[in-house]
UniProtKB/TrEMBL annotation, chain A:
It comes from Microvirga brassicacearum. One of its GO terms (molecular function) is ABC-type amino acid transporter activity. One of its GO terms (cellular component) is plasma membrane. Its main location: membrane. This is Amino acid ABC transporter ATP-binding protein.
From TrEMBL, chain B:
It is found in: Cell inner membrane; Cell membrane. Pfam families: BPD_transp_1. One of its GO terms (molecular function) is transmembrane transporter activity. This is Amino acid ABC transporter permease. The lineage of its organism: Bacteria, Pseudomonadati, Pseudomonadota, Alphaproteobacteria, Hyphomicrobiales. Keywords: Amino-acid transport, Cell membrane, Membrane, Transmembrane, Transmembrane helix, Transport. It comes from the Bacteria.
Length: 258, 219
């Protein structure tokens, strides 16, 4: 196990606005390798936007995101920042995996085809090698028998597990998960949470946005509480849930407890 | 004193009608293939980031849609040689019909592109596909499947419109029917048989396309 000196992900002073509305107001967050961090916070606090900035799906107006020592998304030239070319953005994007709330599987491809596309076109592996990796990952998420099924033939929970396999098969340094169980029927939530848990146990680095407080407590090394575009608290789950320091977090937890 | 039907003379020339039908089909297939390419290009341009691309695609669709096909066919057939471009009448008609179908297909594909869920496209970007790769491997196939029924309808329209080729003496079905009409004076029989052939061919094409739609997985 190699310990790096710098964190795997370092977000410094991240600012993002949509038009004139400032949605992220200077976010600082660092993640070490193999760490699992959950972000909690009320609706509209900017959790999704933060993940989308890290995956370079959104542009941002200020601050830096450094992934494994590389500043991503922008380059500085003569004191001005420029968004980098699409080709370079794509390469940097392939270093992070993203799992979406609404699965977003490619509807025209089978489960195996979904996992294989990035392996073939981004990592440029041969068909056989890509298929072997896809089958291994589908097995890993408990869908060994479903490789030939199209997304429309799978349950929501199964689709989300394919999406997890699709993200992890790319061997990303960091996986971003945005409320991956929110679109699921209640009886399908647990199978997906178990899958995420087992991936965390295997040593993946995860940044998770979730409304499942019990899950956040179980799976995370740290929990981050966001409010109105800022990180208000950041600490071990026992502290965040057991001993909130801020009024706002205490209130949030009171309101989300069922 | 009614008109009594005599089909004998028509059956004698039936093979000419059939070969006319085949020519019409060939013209439509060639034109729609090229038109599909044009339509894809213009549709991607019309939803793309380039202002110039959107302008060119928009002007193309607007111009073609406001021109009667017959005028477009005659324009290409008579005007291009003046500009030093020599095409035979088949090439020139296929070119005109391709331009024409391309404009309609642009609209078909544009609607198809807008129907591809944004999240699915983002999932493509998220695994590291470039914008271009996402277009080829994600957006286009999803859009084509959604557009398949409209694509089929456009093809049937273009097959019917291949009758316009008669105007520049391409021996397709309408042209042959007109000759048989003149030779035999069996006006009603000729056009009844020609109509029957068009209807039967369109029906066959539609069934074929429907079986094609069933072959591809529904989303
Ligand atoms: N594309 C957009 N254009 C304009 N405003 C946006 C856009 N996306 C998000 N916002 C705004 O940014 C703010 C943060 O949204 P975001 O989706 O990041 O919140 P969230 O914490 O993920 O909320 P939720 O828990 O409901 O998912 C909200 O006020 C939202 O309205
Ligand atoms: Mg969100």
């Amino acid at each position: 196990m190699t310990e790096t000196l710098h964190p795997l992900l370092e977000i410094r002073g991240l600012r993002k606005q949509f038009g004139t509305v400032e949605v992220l107001k200077g976010v600082d967050l660092a993640l070490n390798k193999r760490e699992v961090v959950s972000i909690i916070g009320s609706s509209g606090s900017g959790k999704t936007t933060l993940l989308r900035c890290v995956n370079l799906l959104e542009e941002f107006q200020g601050g830096d995101i450094v992934l494994d020592g590389e500043t991503i998304g922008y380059r500085i030239s003569k004191g001005r920042r420029y968004r980098i070319r699409d080709r370079d953005l794509s390469r940097q994007r392939s270093m992070t995996g993203m799992v979406f709330q609404s699965f977003n599987l490619f509807p025209h491809l089978t489960a195996a085809g979904n996992v294989m596309l990035g392996l073939r076109k981004v990592r440029r592996l041969g068909r056989d090698e890509a298929r072997a990796i896809a089958e291994a990952w589908l097995g890993r998420v408990g869908l060994a028998q479903r490789g030939d099924h199209y997304p429309s033939q799978l349950s929501g929970g199964q689709q989300q597990r394919v999406a997890i396999a699709r993200a992890l098969a790319m061997d990303p340094k960091l996986v971003l998960l945005d409320e991956v169980t929110s679109a699921l029927d209640p009886e399908l939530v647990q199978e997906v949470l178990n899958t995420v848990k087992s991936i965390a146990d295997d040593g993946a680095t995860l940044l998770i946005v979730t409304h499942e407080m019990r899950f956040a407590r179980d799976v995370s090394n740290r929990v981050v509480f966001m409010e109105q575009g800022q990180i208000v608290e950041d600490g071990p789950p026992a502290e965040i849930f057991g001993n909130p320091r801020s009024q706002r977090l205490a209130e949030f937890l009171r309101n989300t407890r069922t | 004193m009614g008109y009594s039907l005599h089909f004998g003379a028509i059956w004698a020339s039936f093979d000419r009608l059939l070969s006319g039908l085949a020519i019409g089909l060939g013209l439509a297939i060639a034109a729609v293939l090229i038109g599909t390419f044009l339509g894809l290009l213009a549709a991607f341009a019309s939803v793309g980031p380039s202002r110039l691309g959107r302008l060119i695609a928009g002007s193309y669709v607007m111009m073609i849609r406001n021109l009667p096909l017959l005028v477009l066919v005659l324009l290409v057939y008579f005007a291009l040689p003046q500009a030093g471009i020599r095409l035979d009448k088949y090439e020139s008609f296929i070119g005109a019909l391709a331009l024409y179908s391309g404009a309609y297909l642009t609209e078909v594909f544009r609607a198809g592109l807008l129907s591809v869920p944004k999240g699915v496209v983002e999932a493509g970007r998220a695994i590291g596909l470039t914008r271009f790769q996402t277009g080829i491997w994600v957006t286009a196939p999803v859009m084509l499947r959604n557009a398949l029924p409209s694509l089929g309808n456009t093809f049937i329209s273009m097959f019917k419109d291949s009758s316009i080729a008669a105007a520049i003496a391409i021996p397709e079905l309408t042209f042959e029917a007109r000759k048989i009409n003149v030779d035999t004076f069996r006006v009603v029989e000729t056009w009844l048989v020609a109509s029957g052939l068009y209807v039967a061919a369109c029906f066959a094409i539609a069934s074929f396309l429907r079986s094609l739609e069933r072959r591809f997985p529904k989303f």
